[in-house]
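Open question from group meeting: does this chain pack into something compact, or does most of it stay loose? Before anyone orders reagents, we agreed to write out a predicted structure and look at it together. Recording both the input and the output here so the notebook holds the full record.
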Amino acid sequence: MTGPSAKRRWHTNNADNQYFRAWYAKAIFSKPQVALFVNERTLLPLVIPLAPILNLVDLFPEYLFKILLNQGVSESFIMQELNHLDEVTYCKSSNRSTIGILNMFSYHLDGYRAINYVDN
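Structure tokens returned:
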């Protein structure tokens, strides 16, 4: 991700058998730096620490597993979905709804950080 407006699309080639399908991400470069992922179909947000960025692709399934399990989704369904995550593509999103949701969640994260984090 090269800048604040760079989007990352994570999808599968076998979309017919997958519920979540495409994920989009936006890097947020304030303290702490995070990657905000939003699912295109469900608009489920997922926040992952941006550093180290080299592990972001590996961390995504782990964080997704934890958030879905905490939401009461069955482990077998989660594993089925994770098995379909087979391709990461960097591109700009043309889905205006998803871009709007990413921007809305970014705004809420800024407010959360303003309340919960103090600059050093």
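Observations to bring back to the group:
The longest helix spans residues 96-116.
The two ends are 26 Å apart (CA to CA).
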